[in-house]
UniProtKB/TrEMBL annotation:
Enzyme class: hydrolase
Annotated ranges, domain Peptidase S9 prolyl oligopeptidase catalytic: 488-702
Classification via SUPFAM superfamilies: alpha/beta-Hydrolases, Peptidase/esterase 'gauge' domain
Protein source organism: Flagellimonas abyssi
Coiled-coil stretches: none
Catalysed reaction equations from the record: Hydrolysis of Pro-|-Xaa >> Ala-|-Xaa in oligopeptides
Protein name per the record: prolyl oligopeptidase
Pfam families attached to this UniProt entry: Peptidase_S9, Peptidase_S9_N
Length: 718
């Protein structure tokens, strides 16, 4: 597909239908993407990989390709007449103070806060009712705001802190240790920390995890042996001791260590994939603690939540797909000695502790329900939440008598509530002052049938009074994988979409965790097509019930959700007008050869597992299913050049295939954010620019000459 002129006026709004309307097409000069003769052989089947060269993120050739693609993409986006209006509205709506839940460390109360348009949240603190002061300001870490704070951990007495930073969105972190009182750095910066938190052992040192730095590109080379280290303050990082993961017998892709609140135990988790873990412990009160096995298989997700002396409390889905809390003594902690404390129910459990109680948050059709239990497993009360939506943050330290929880849904900005653990009473602590009226919007949950008859829930949010006439611009957003649950939460960018008369729909697809392990497994490996079928059925429901039509439907998702969009648009290109795959896993035959991608095999399987698995994966892999002569929807692929989670080569290859084979006149563009990663820590300024482009592209390719609701824009301009 070369130098194609775009017929942009595809469908006009109802008021314009009677009169023929045209506009100047935007010409896209697609860069030429060379092809190479790379061929892989899988079980006797030869599979060409003509764009393999784009996997080399360090080559000058790839860098030049990125620049040319961005020039073509931004040349198009700059011609969209309302792009700047969207950016201005996003900035206006975004510009309100945001506050995170306070937490106590030593003599201070700490909290994250953003005054509105700051690129990164600032950490503040104060003593009792004293003066507020800045503790850490990540906006000073780099000039362009692309260095972010990605973790903060204090010693038990609050006298020292260690924090992690990410540069350019990379998963590789640096660790910095400071004296909490003076805020002075107390030793050299630690480097090359990855997929890790920091867990202190007294004031002496802390545990962290990382991989050996790979040969070749640190952004894309495979990393698969995670190691847990102990860093003793005052010593060089080169002397850090490997606690677990350093031998062939202990080789795992993901290893983590956490010290119990009473500092008695070190718990170690070890996994070969994103689901299932082994569990070990060490008694830190002993001089040379031995490694004790709690669980020696990866058949369940099991982790410690609390201990009272030698009595351990574990959360597990072993023999309990929806999870339960069990107890066991540290002297003999294997599963045959576990006793149920909070039994499994029909709803999925997320458990936390605080103030000497357990808080069990359940998902009931993706909606929060919270129960409070004592340490004997007795129900104390159900916490009556402020509304129907998502609650989070229940929990704190054992001595806390108050803590803070958050509440939100798709049309209600998140607020904070101060909760009394003994009485169960709470009061609103903080409410955002935002230029958005939740009362103007409504959310409704519907259930629809997927291809195989499975009932799937979906929450649809839109402005009250919206006419179901099939002409509403609609974004269908999905994920469907890795046991991730999509629960209702407010988004500034979605608020701007809905202000313009847009509908926002989120189905809870199989592969997620909304209905426990069985729901997750139903969307993995040889069941992965169920996820795409669920998403397709959601689109068909929206069209059949006149929320929208093909001409006004956009599908969107990121990471595993990017795969979802890529698979859906290649299987059913007739179903949507716009496709918006973000940082997607698009080359399913090779995903496991990059960074920690092999750890995703629990969900996906790999092309090397068996001929059956290879054929199944090849059957939906987006890169391998772009077909010559097919009319694909208008597509804006988005990725970051520093993404070392889902390497950008996935998106590069997919965009190249689309540009070569697109038979229609819809644009197939790729927007590559420079000095950015998988998404976490992205500066606010970049996020606003990205969504102005994404929404601008979407509205424009739905046929809009101007934004549907210009009154909103005029109102804030005036």
């Amino acid at each position: 597909m070369k130098n194609i002129s775009l017929l942009a006026a595809l469908v006009l709004f109802a008021a314009c239908k009677e009169e023929s309307k045209t506009r100047e097409p935007i010409t896209v000069n697609y860069p030429t993407t060379k092809k190479v003769d790379t061929v892989d052989n899988y079980f006797g089947t030869e599979v060409p990989d003509p764009y393999r060269w784009l996997e080399d993120d360090r080559s000058e050739e790839t860098e030049a390709w990125v620049k040319k693609q961005n020039a073509a993409t931004f040349g198009y986006l700059e011609k969209i007449p309302f792009r700047e209006d969207l950016k201005n509205r996003l900035e206006k709506l975004w510009n309100y103070e945001k506050v995170g839940s306070p937490f106590k460390e030593g003599d201070y109360t700490y909290y994250y806060k953003n005054n509105g348009l700051q690129n990164q949240y600032v950490v503040y603190r104060k003593k009792d009712n004293g003066e507020e002061e800045v503790f850490l300001d990540p906006n000073t870490f780099s000039e362009d705001g692309t260095t972010s704070l990605m973790g903060l951990s204090f010693t038990k007495d609050g006298s020292k802190a260690a924090y992690l930073i990410s540069e350019g969105g990379s998963d590789w972190r640096k660790g910095i240790v400071i004296d909490a009182e003076s805020k002075e750095i107390v030793e050299d910066t630690l480097v090359d920390i990855k997929f890790s938190g920091i867990s202190w052992k007294g004031n002496e040192g802390f545990y962290y995890s990382s991989y050996d730095k790979p040969e070749g590109s640190e952004l894309s080379a495979k990393t698969d042996q995670h190691k847990l280290y102990y860093h003793k303050l005052g010593t060089p990082q080169s002397e850090d001791k490997i606690i677990f993961g350093g031998t062939p017998e202990e080789k795992h892709r993901y290893v983590g260590g956490s010290v119990s609140e009473d500092q008695k135990y070190l718990f170690i988790t070890a996994s070969i994939s994103t689901s299932g873990n082994k569990l070990f412990m060490m008694d830190l009160s002993k001089e040379n603690p031995e490694l004790v096995t709690i669980l020696d298989d990866t058949d369940s997700d099991t982790y410690p939540i609390e201990n009272e002396g030698s009595k351990l409390y574990l959360v597990t889905d072993r023999d309990a797909p929806n999870k339960k809390v069990v107890t066991v003594d540290a002297s003999n902690p294997t599963p045959d000695n576990w006793k149920d404390l909070i039994p499994e129910t029909e709803n999925v459990l997320t458990a936390a502790t605080g103030g000497g109680y357990f808080f069990a948050e359940y998902m009931v059709d993706a909606i929060s329900k919270v129960l409070q239990y004592d340490y004997d497993g007795n129900l104390v009360r159900e916490v009556k939440l402020p509304g129907v939506g998502s609650a989070g943050g229940f929990g704190g330290k054992k001595e806390d008598k108050e803590f803070y929880f958050s509440f939100t849904n798709y049309n209600t900005p998140g607020s904070l509530y101060k909760y009394n653990v003994d009485t169960g009473e709470y009061e609103q602590y903080w409410k955002p002052q935002i230029d958005f009226n939740p009362g103007d919007y409504e959310s409704k949950q519907v259930f629809y049938n997927s291809k195989d008859g499975t009932k799937v829930p979906m929450i649809i949010t839109y402005k009250k009074g919206t006419e179901l006439n099939g002409k509403n611009p609609t974004i269908l957003y999905g994920y469907g994988g890795f046991n991730v649950s999509l629960t209702p939460s407010f988004s500034i960018v979605n608020a701007v979409w809905m202000e313009q008369g847009g509908v926002y729909a989120v189905p809870n697809l199989r592969g997620g965790g909304e209905y426990g392990k069985k729901w997750h497994i139903a969307g993995t490996k040889l069941n992965k097509q169920n996820v795409f079928d669920d998403f397709i059925a959601a689109a068909e429901y929206l069209i059949e019930n006149k929320y929208t039509s093909k001409e006004y439907l956009a599908i969107r998702g990121g990471s595993n959700g990017g795969l979802l969009v890529g698979a859906t648009m290649t299987q059913r290109p007739d179903l949507m007008q716009v496709a918006l795959p973000a940082v997607g896993v698009m080359d399913m035959l090779r995903y496991h050869t990059f960074t920690a991608g092999a750890g995703w095999a629990y969900d996906y399987g790999t092309s090397e597992d068996s001929e059956e698995m290879f054929n199944y994966i090849k059957g939906y892999s987006p890169v391998h299913n772009v077909k010559e002569g097919t009319e694909y929807p208008a597509t804006l692929v988005t990725t970051g050049d520093h993404d070392d989670r889902v390497v950008p080569a996935h998106s590069f290859k997919f965009a190249a295939e689309l540009q070569e084979k697109q038979a229609g006149e819809q644009p197939t563009l790729i927007r590559i954010e420079t000095n950015a990663g998988h998404g976490a820590g992205t500066p606010v300024s970049k996020t606003i620019e990205q969504y102005a482009d994404i929404f601008g592209f979407t509205f424009y390719n739905m046929g809009y000459e101007e934004l549907p609701n210009q009154a909103v824009l005029k109102e804030f301009k005036d």
